Amino acid sequence: MTTPAHRPQEVQAPEPDEGGRGSRLLDLVERAGNALPHPFWLFWILCGVVALVSWALNASGLQVEDPSSGDLVGVRSALSADAVRDLITGAEESFVTFGPLGTVLMVMLGVAVAERSGLFEALARRMLSGLSPRTVVLGVALGGVLGKFLSDSAYVVLIPLGAVAFRAVGRSPMLGMIVAFVSINAAGDANPLIAPGDALFASVATEAAQLVDKDVVVRATDNMYFTTVSAFVLAGTIALVVDKILAKREHHLTPDPDLEAAAAQRVVAAEVDDTTELRALKLTGLAVLGYAALMVLAMLPASSPLRGEGGAIVESTFMNAIAVFLTVFFLLIGAVYGRLTGRIRGSRAIPEFMAEGVRSIAPLLVLFFAVSQFLALFKWTNIATVVAVEGADFLKQLGAPTLVLFSLLIVAVALMNLLITSGSALWTLVAPALVPMLMLLGTSPATTMALYRIADSCTNSITPMSTSFMLCVGYLQTLRRKAGIGTLVSFTLPVAMIMLVVWVLLFFAWYLLGIPLGPGAPVR
């Protein structure tokens, strides 16, 4: 329980907009999407669809040259003895090695302790008490854009925090989840911080560029100026769209009373007076500084096991295992705060909180099983490779003016991204075709990489093929049982489309003004 002073602000959500063609269209999108079967069954149905499509493409004899290997690749039929054998024997491995599964489970062990100790609620209440609901939107959006530095762990950490932040100012916690999700998912490539993904993008672009010029080297910092400015532009865009469009439909995001009550009462402990709480927060802050200092000291030696080959920091043990360090971080600060406030009494409380956290995401684990089997089937058929190569070849044959070609490239990659939602996988497939093609037209690899970032990001938030999309659906269902794919798409679609337009216009202005994309990386 909390004292009356600790309760969230009673702020009314914006009045529902019952009229307007745009609002009615989004209502239709929501109803149509939610009329689909439960996502668990939807992915098994999609498995059947992919199996039939793969059989038809295999029968047609369609083949393309894999740009990464030079080998001819054709679509493999899922309706074959080899497919049945491989997919059945690999089902367990496909589930256990499914990317988000390990990250979600591990980070949740730490997050659960921090959440159930009352730390998140106390931080949100004190930090947001003087802010308006509109300012909170911008704060969550900025946090999501910058939080992509945490890789997949960002979703596990920031989506629940988005709910806490919105609940603290009297707005729908489900809308807070959506704002956090779309900020990470659709604007994450506009991160001013250099992350492991930037190093991967640069290395792939370098290999592709050296097919034309063996002296070209693309660096992880080559888009830094552009992504830094883009981060704040896109966070502001998200806040504006939420305020002008999504807020008018916030009444569609009313949690089920029993689920919201359970979420709001996860912290069940003795009342904490303001003096005790403030002291606990200050000492927890010192624990944060201590942990950060320890990590810095551990990373200082070039021979540190937390560094990578040759003393690398971006491609390092620390960055590649960020989920482990985040788990320890949240476990530490949750334990410190809980002990100081009396919400953690004895050693048994911590593992009990961790177990409660895992139980709370059980629906996600069930959904992940279906998603992992579908993605394994889709990858096995080679449909993704064929789609990417055919799309790149189509652009190459157009011979359009530069800005028109850029626009078509963005549209084509954005459409491919609806099917191939892994940014690194799609870049690996299309870069060997797009980078040399545009170099021959006078466009630098850094510019092609920036164009790809724009195209790759925005449509991630509207496709059920994205594992993070389905993760967010699962989170929404923890507050509203009937929330589904349509619920999420109807709220992310306006944001994604407007962000795409704004980001393209920003890039065109950047290109026409000739501003460098990064240190030593001219835009043209």
Question: What does this entry show, briefly?
Answer:
This protein is mainly alpha-helical and 524 residues long. It has one domain. Helices cover 67% and strands 1% of the residues.
Highlighted features:
524 residues, disordered N terminus, 2 strands, globular, two-stranded antiparallel sheet
Spell out the blueprint of helices and strands.
Layout: H1 21-34, H2 39-60, E1 63-65, E2 72-74, H3 81-89, H4 91-96, H5 99-116, H6 119-128, H7 133-147, H8 153-168, H9 173-187, H10 196-209, H11 224-244, H12 257-264, H13 274-299, H14 317-320, H15 322-341, H16 349-360, H17 362-381, H18 383-398, H19 402-416, H20 423-440, H21 445-458, H22 467-477, H23 485-513
Helix pairs in contact: 1-23, 2-17, 5-8, 5-15, 5-16, 6-8, 7-8, 7-9, 7-11, 8-9, 9-11, 9-22, 9-23, 10-20, 11-23, 13-15, 17-22, 18-19, 18-20, 19-21, 20-21, 21-23
Tell me what the structure shows.
This protein has 524 residues and is mainly α. It has one domain. Helices cover 67% and strands 1% of the residues. The protein is built from 23 helices and two strands. The protein has helices at residues 21-34, 39-60, 81-89, 91-96, 99-116, 119-128, 133-147, 153-168, 173-187, 196-209, 224-244, 257-264, 274-299, 317-320, 322-341, 349-360, 362-381, 383-398, 402-416, 423-440, 445-458, 467-477, 485-513, and strands at residues 63-65, 72-74. It has a two-stranded antiparallel sheet with strand order 1-2. A hairpin with a 6-residue loop joins strand 1 (63-65) and strand 2 (72-74). Helix 7 runs parallel beside helix 9 (173-187). The chain is globular, with a radius of gyration of 24 Å. The termini are far apart.
